[in-house]
Design a protein that fits this description.
- By secondary structure, the protein is an alpha/beta fold.
- It has 31 helices and 23 strands.
- Its main location: cytoplasm.
- One of its GO terms (molecular function) is ATP binding.
- It is found in: Cytoplasm.
Length: 739
């Protein structure tokens, strides 16, 4: 194991380096949800890049299996999630190496690291657990019993699993020597039927996290990649004297800076910037994602061209050009199928001969890597999903302008007008509920820019000047004004305009902001989306967002919903919101940074609050404080709110000046008595509470599960207060303030 993990590829061209020398600590947090995160991982990073809404529990690699002193249960299964390229695999390698060399986790007698890529190759084979270990780890052949041994199994890359892990219908297996199908063996190992004393560590991308039942998992952790200080340290190490200028440039371009959470992206970006800084004085550095990936492709092609053609100036050698196009075809076809890993048969279908590829275009092992599986079955993947999306966009662009064939519609167009291709791409991307084509669309539109086409001259067919892009830009602006389009899809269209170097909408908003004229203007949906894009592209942490600073209207709220989502505290007081606003707001609460939300003095009514409660009950919701003063609520709202109290971490709730009455308060008390309820402050000023409601609250205060410390019943008529005073004197009661 020391030999296997002591060296890692510093870059995927084949250069290796000692793991202990190049390893940089990653930011790992404890806690998280298992719900499917269906958004594009770039959007996931954009949200995560904001200042955390609440203090997060960080955990080191060495402490993953250390038991919590407050919990009697040992940690059996750790699920670690993280976006592609964030460093999950290297993390497992570092853990394994530290154990093998005696630096950490020496309470483990045995450690068996597997990848799902390896296991996929055996999906049609039967094994016992003992037989599987003997197959992979020859030193274990004398091992037949695990009695009194502390064992850890590492299963890396659940999102790549091609085995049918059915936890509801798979029969129970307890004998480690019994031969079964591999999926039966894995299911029983994960749920603890087989070898219940063993520990497991499973890594996955967020979208696949819910494949493991929650009851099987001890803790969920998340690898966030590089923090902002770690990003700076990485670039200081790579650029030394030029690091200040490089860091300043990267920070000025939000889309690049966000992607730098990924170690692999930092490497790609450094590769490009180092070459540009070496070649010219005062070079023009990449301003967009597309431009950066174009430079990356050109740099790699130039290195290969010089290597094969005795230092000649860059021209796309036939074999290099063919290789790029074949990789593009593979990237697009596999992207359509949702595949990130491919086999030799997939390569052959795209005209890729791996032997020829390694001879003529070894440089593209930097873009494309292979991992040896069992029985010489090799698994291939691009070094990051974004590289696959870029090459897929390159293939679609080249195919259309060289043959007239639109791969997105499977139609032939003889005139080959750019706007025809771009419109179909925009339409398809907007139809996606998950945004899985968002980055592909940014790249495809970015490739139409003349500066990018000049860099790829000899590889791409030229499509005219930037003037020809105006039809596409006009179409995108029309889409931005359409009703029914989600705020997230609109935000991506703004990114697309940025890739096409069209900043007209953003500049218009900046001008209006400087003039202080937003609150008086009748803004279009496109303009609100542009303001949202502008605020999210700034380097401010959005600690507090007050909608009234811009415009107190429902239209403004819906247009700025992504900003609300990424804020820590949202003040939406008296903004003319209706029940119509509550559905969209509820939909973002499950992935929002919000801890404080003030919706006071909006006519939300019972129907709106019921919609809002659906979002508040979602496990990932971080909201701690909710204010609904004067929102036109009746006792009917109290049932859904009680359900929220018994299933969330809400600590402060203000329902003052609503017509809740005694029946509503009684419903709220059902939630307050829940063992899960953490509410500390409840304000019911002016809610028509009488003696019956006061008695219900007194009973709640006397409950051992109540956490209430502050209760506001001012401007109510609870009648005799003897029961409340008795509750206050009760030793169990935690109440400190009663109004």
């Amino acid at each position: 194991m020391q030999q296997k993990f002591s060296l890692v590829f510093k870059d995927v061209a084949g250069d290796s380096a000692p793991l202990t020398q190049i390893y940089t600590d990653l930011y790992i947090t404890e806690g998280g949800a298992l719900e499917v995160n269906q958004e594009h991982e770039v959007r996931h990073m954009e949200t995560a890049s904001r200042t955390p809404a609440a203090p997060e529990t960080t955990i080191t690699c060495e402490d993953l299996f250390k038991s919590d002193p407050r919990s009697p249960e040992p940690i059996r299964l750790v699920l670690t999630k993280g976006v592609a390229g964030v460093g999950k695999t290297v993390l497992t390698q570092k853990f394994s190496l530290d154990w093998a060399e005696g630096r950490a986790n020496q309470d483990l007698q045995l450690l068996f690291p597997f990848t799902f890529r390896q296991l996929n190759a055996l999906r049609d084979t039967q094994f016992s657990l003992v037989g599987l270990l003997h197959h992979f780890f020859s030193p274990s052949k004398g091992l037949c019993s695990f009695h009194q041994l502390q064992v850890l199994f590492i299963l890396d890359g659940l999102d790549e699993c091609r085995l049918a892990l059915d936890f509801s219908r798979t029969w129970i297996l307890t004998d480690p020597t019994e031969t079964v199908s591999l999926h039966v063996l894995l299911v029983n190992l994960i749920r603890g039927s087989l070898l219940p004393s063993a520990r497991l560590w499973i890594t996955t991308r967020p979208a696949a996290a819910n494949q493991i039942p929650a009851e099987c998992i001890s803790i969920v952790t998340e690898v966030r990649g590089f923090t902002d200080p770690q990003k700076k340290q990485y670039f200081r190490t790579r650029f030394r004297d030029q690091s200040t200028a490089v860091i300043s440039h990267i920070k000025s371009i939000r889309s690049l800076y966000i992607m730098c959470h990924l170690p692999v992206f930092c490497w790609i970006l450094s590769t490009v910037l180092q070459k540009l800084l070496e070649q010219t004085e005062g070079p023009e550095l990449p301003q967009t994602l597309t431009q950066m990936y174009v430079h990356f492709l050109v740099v790699q092609a130039k290195v290969q061209n010089i290597k094969n053609h005795q230092g000649a100036e860059l021209h796309w050698a036939p074999e290099t050009r063919e290789m790029v196009r074949s990789l593009g075809k593979l990237a697009f076809e596999q992207l359509q199928k949702g595949n990130l890993n491919f086999y030799e048969s997939d390569l052959s279908e795209c005209g890729l001969d791996t032997a020829v590829a390694s001879m003529y275009s070894g440089v593209f092992t930097r873009v494309f890597r292979e991992e040896a599986g069992l029985y010489q079955d090799k698994v291939y993947c691009f070094i990051h999903l974004s590289v696959q999306e870029f090459l897929a966009a390159l293939h679609v662009h080249h195919t259309f302008f060289s043959s007239g064939r639109n791969l997105l519609e499977q139609k032939l167009h003889f005139k080959r007008k750019p706007e025809v291709l771009h419109r179909s791409a925009v339409d398809q991307a907007l139809q996606s509920q998950t945004g899985h084509l968002d980055l592909f669309l940014r790249f495809l539109l970015g490739l139409s820019v003349s500066t990018n086409q000049r860099l790829l001259q000899g590889l791409l067919t030229q499509t005219g000047s930037d003037r020809t892009n105006q039809e596409t830009i006009k179409y995108i602006k029309q889409k931005l004004n359409e009703k029914g389009l989600s705020a997230e899809r609109k935000l991506n269209l703004l990114h697309c305009l940025n890739e096409m170097n069209d900043l007209s909408l953003v500049k218009e908003i900046q001008k209006n902001l400087r003039g202080g004229r937003l609150s008086k203007r009748n803004m279009s949906p496109a303009q609100w989306s542009a303001l949202s894009f502008l605020l999210l592209s700034s380097d401010s942490d959005l600690e507090e967002f007050d909608l009234r600073k811009y415009q107190a209207s429902e239209t403004a709220f819906l247009g700025l919903l992504p900003v609300v989502r990424d804020s820590t505290k949202a003040l939406l007081i008296g903004c003319g919101l209706s029940p119509h606003s509550c559905g969209p707001l509820a939909s973002v609460l499950s992935s929002s940074s919000l801890t404080h939300l003030d919706l006071s003095h909006n006519d939300l009514q019972d129907s709106g609050v019921e919609l809002l409660c659906d979002g508040l009950k979602s496990a990932p919701c971080r909201l701690l404080t909710l204010s609904l003063i004067g929102c036109g609520l009746s006792p009917h709202s109290c049932g859904p709110l009680a359900s929220v109290l018994s299933s969330s971490g809400l600590t402060r709730l203000d329902l003052s000046h609503n017509y809740l009455q005694d029946s509503g308060v009684e419903l709220l008390c059902c939630g307050l008595k829940s063992a899960i309820c953490r509410l500390e402050t409840l304000r019911l000023s002016g809610c028509l509470v009488s003696e019956r409601g006061g008695a219900a609250l007194a009973s709640t205060l006397s409950s051992t599960s109540s956490h209430l410390r502050e209760l506001d019943l001012s401007y109510n008529h609870p009648g005799p207060s003897a029961e409340l005073l008795t509750a206050l004197r009760d030793a169990i009661c935690r109440l400190e303030t009663l109004r």
